[in-house]
Every structure is written in structure tokens, then in C-alpha cells.
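sorry for the late reply, my laptop died twice this morning and i had to redo everyting from scratch. anyway the thing you sent over, i finally got around to it. pasting the sequence first so we're on the same page, its 250 residues, then the predicted structure underneath. double check i copied it right bc i was rushing
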Amino acid sequence: MSTRTRWGRIYAGSTQDEQGGTPVSSSPPGKLGYEDAPPDRTGQAEAFDAIGDHYDEAFPHKEGQVAATEWLVDSLPAGSRVLDLGCGTGLPTSRQLAEAGFGVVGVDLSGGMVALARRHVPHGTFHQVDLADLRPGGPCDLGRFDAVAAFFSLLMLPRAEIPVALRTVRHLLVPDGLFVLSMVEADVDDFTIPFLGRTIRVSGYLRDELRETVEAAGFEIVEEASYTYAPASADVPPEVQIFLRCRRHD
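ok and here's the structure:
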């Protein structure tokens, strides 16, 4: 299989016209700031509203996610405040953090996912919020956090927005705050793919470029792990998942 992506059977070698996405080589130069083009992710939110609990059914085993969250639990002092960025249904991350006694705040684009998270994790606080709204000077101020978890949420952004999102995460962290994230290893930018009966747009990096992007945003990578994952749904192809455990670099 091509190193382009483990999703490659869907769109390896395809053109922009075939898939409705942008090949990596055609990405526009320069950096995009949220203030330059406020993102509209209505379609992504609606897709996950419809997916709901089916997400957890398709991804029943989340060993990498649980292990990365356990690293936070072992590394943080009691009573720490943690943001679950792209919390989804709240399972397993928000629940795992809440059961460890942390103050959990979760945010997600999807109102349906937020409703499920509130049901699954009654001791957490959940908001339907776009990450762009959490930027410095943005319309939503949730304060600072001792740690942020972003499991598979950043891959929903175009590549041009991911460095901005990472800098926003850094802004949300206290000095030396911890950050865990995961991405699917994939050399794609804003590609349209079928996902659990819906259509979503995804981006990704190959491993070395992901590390470079995270470090350039002001993080030290403390540990790295990867898993080959085969979802339960035939609609979603096997993938390589990369997990980075990071610290805000000051």
C-alpha cells in the first residue's frame, strides 16, 4: 500500500476532481489565521450529529487513547483541570479523566456529541464550541488548563489551520502544561471521505512531518506511540494511529 495514507484505498492517487479534496502538493502557500477566514464547519458538525453513538460502535477498542490519557492521570497532580478537545461522546477520555478526580471540560462542534458526553460523564462540563473560538481574544474564554487532550480532532481541519489550532492549544495551557494528541498517519489535506454512512473531510501528516509541526507550535514531544487499528465498521479502512505525549515548551 502507498505510504500516502492507510486510508489510501479510498483515494490514493486520486485527483482533486475525483475526490473533492485538495492534494497536498496543491495546498496554498502561507499561513491561515482564524481572523483571515473564519472557518465554517457546519457540515462536519452535522455529520457527527448523525453518527452519534455509532462512532463508539465502530471504534470499540481505544487502547492508544486510554494509554495516553493514563499518562496524563499519572503525570498530573490531584484536582488538575483538563480540556478534552473534540470530546465526542465523552468515552473514554472525559470519563477516564473525571473518574481520576480531575476537573474535566469538553468541547465539540457537534451538539449531538455534546449531549451524549453530558449523559455519559455527568461530572464533566461540556460546551458546543469550535476550537477557533478559543483562540486568544476569541469569543469563548474557558480559562487555562493543566492539560489538553485532542484525540483525532485536529484531523478534521484543513492542514493550513492545524498549526493555528496547535498554537491555540498552547495558549490554553499553563506553563509546562501537558498535551496529548493523536492523528491518523496520512499524507492528505482536506480530503472528502465516506465515514460511517456520512461524508467528512480529513487531513493528516506522515510521522516526521507531524512531529515537526507539533514542535514548531511550541511543544516538546516527550513520548510517541503508534498503533495499527482496524475499526469494527467495514465503512472505515484500517489505519495507523500516532499518539504524541507533549509538554508546552517555554
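Strands lie at 81-85, 103-108, 125-128, 145-151, 173-184, 191-195, 198-202, 219-229, 239-248.
thats about all i looked at so far, will dig more tmrw
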